[in-house]
Specification:
Elements: H1 11-14, H2 19-42, H3 50-57, H4 64-97, H5 109-124, H6 129-151, H7 160-182, H8 186-197, H9 205-224, H10 226-232, H11 236-241, H12 246-268, H13 274-286, H14 290-314, H15 323-342
Helix pairs in contact: 2-4, 2-14, 3-4, 4-9, 4-12, 4-13, 4-14, 5-6, 5-7, 5-12, 6-7, 6-12, 9-12, 10-14, 13-14, 14-15
Length: about 350
Amino acid sequence: MTSVGIDRAPDAALVRRPARVRFLWLLVTAGVLAALMVASVALGSRDVTWSDVWAALGGADDTLEQAAVAKRMPRTLLAVVIGAALGLAGCVMQGVTRNPLADPGILGVNMGASLAVVTAVAFFGLTSPTGYIWVAMAGAAVSAVFVYAVGSLGRGGATPLKLALAGTATSVAFASLVSAVALPRNDIAGSFKLWQIGGVGGASYERIGQVLPFLAVGLAVCLLSARGLNSLALGDELAAGLGERVAVIRAMAALGAVVLCGASTAVAGPIGFVGLVVPHACRLLVGVDHRWLLPFSALTGAALLTAADVAGRVVTRPADVEVGIVTALIGAPFFIHIVRRQKVRDL
């Protein structure tokens, strides 16, 4: 793929960060994530004590409080792995397209995965959880190619604004198709209604075990693409002049992002805006070197989604607000801010 949109990061993000500063921020983020995981286990619609937490960690579920903690533990782990996957995928997409607006939700990738899963369940009787993941990844890949092809039409090629508009239009169209497929089917409409919003409430260790190998493969492919993404940031011509195989780098990095998006959507639904917000915030802290930016985006994405899940449980308790709604409330204003900062004519 070829792209012409360049992410004009703030001056603070262009300054080279010393390794010790980057490592310090990495430790701080890891500490924040650990604290959020503890909060996710301890906080919710039912108050629990530390003795209940320790008892549940030891396998006890004798009381309602201990049972609540035991239910929150896989939910917390799923929020961590899905958040890390989406944060990393968003960072890779922004690097591959050199587009500051790139995000699995905005570019229509998540909704393409959703449409593929709903169609496979409704018309082909798909029931295998692993099958969901394969189908979701295929749908994510087809949607990504379609959006890029549409965004490349006309003068100027695939500019960031055209990609964002094509992705948004595709997401809306696919969301309508998902509703059109699912609503007439009473046997699947109820389960897909909540899944379509995006959330981690139905987490289980079995589901995590099913999706983890796919996420591990996507994670490895993306991290191995870090050096190549640094070259792409210089421009295709300069990267090629340095001996890099631009098409191969772009294809491999995009493949890793598609695997992460498809697997995440299959398990948690189409959660948006994590991949948009996280990379921009991380560049302010560790700079633009993808060898640091990618792992930092994974940690920050995990922290953001865990925090959003905790907020959704605490703010309206005893009811739960799905994490997809919370991330949309955070991400939509940020998206508007990015567009205003970049200025439409520069996009």
